[in-house]
């Protein structure tokens, strides 16, 4: 060990764990005491103390953030992915050909890079709407897409719409029988139920 001044050059002498000859003296690092519900040196979190961390802050839609067993990071397994939070809630195949999306997350989500297609895509390559940075859904909010304002393709009597993420993975879809969406084809109970 070493016996040096802390703060370096001005403080009182004390026994130091790390000798630093030819360099500034370094104070001893407090031992990490994970599990004492206090943020000690080197800890990101400790038990229920998350230092302001949230699933949303880690890039997720919501959920419950917890601390790992060594207090060096977060456990994200109970966080909700955006792909599980954004869903198709209602469609209508007459008039405005609306498609309603819903955000069950705890934060706003910008859909940049996501896309919406109908059942004829990719045969009809123009039957796709690619979302931009202007397409945002607030937490617990709805985003209503209207033909010729958002998408340019019509929805047929026996059709489907498919929501895809930026990796082109299917996030959600609504596939209705002939005439099933002439008025409305929606989830009942709202947001959580099956389409009818």
Quaternary structure annotation: single chain
Helix amount: under 10%
The main sheet comes to: 5 strands, antiparallel
Structural class category:
mainly beta
What general form does the structure show? elongated
Report the mean per-residue pLDDT as an integer: 92
State the distance separating the first and last CA atoms. 74 Å
Strand segment count: 17
Q: What's the SSE blueprint?
A:
Layout (H helix, E strand, L loop, with lengths): L1 E5 L5 E5 L45 E2 L2 E2 L6 E2 L3 E2 L1 H4 E6 L7 E5 L5 E2 L4 E4 L9 E3 L5 E2 L4 E4 L14 E5 L5 E6 L9 E4 L5 E2 L1
Antiparallel strand pairs: 1-2, 3-6, 4-5, 7-8, 7-16, 8-13, 9-12, 10-11, 10-14, 14-15, 16-17
Identify the notable features of this structure and list them briefly.
31% strand, 196 residues, mainly beta, 1 helix, 4-stranded antiparallel beta sheet
Structure description:
By secondary structure, this protein is an all-beta fold. It is 2% helix and 31% strand. The chain has 1 helix and 17 strands. Strands 13-8-7-16-17 form a 5-stranded antiparallel sheet. The longest helix is centred in the middle third of the chain and has 4 residues, at 82-85. It is elongated, with a radius of gyration of 27 Å. The termini are far apart. The mean pLDDT is 92.
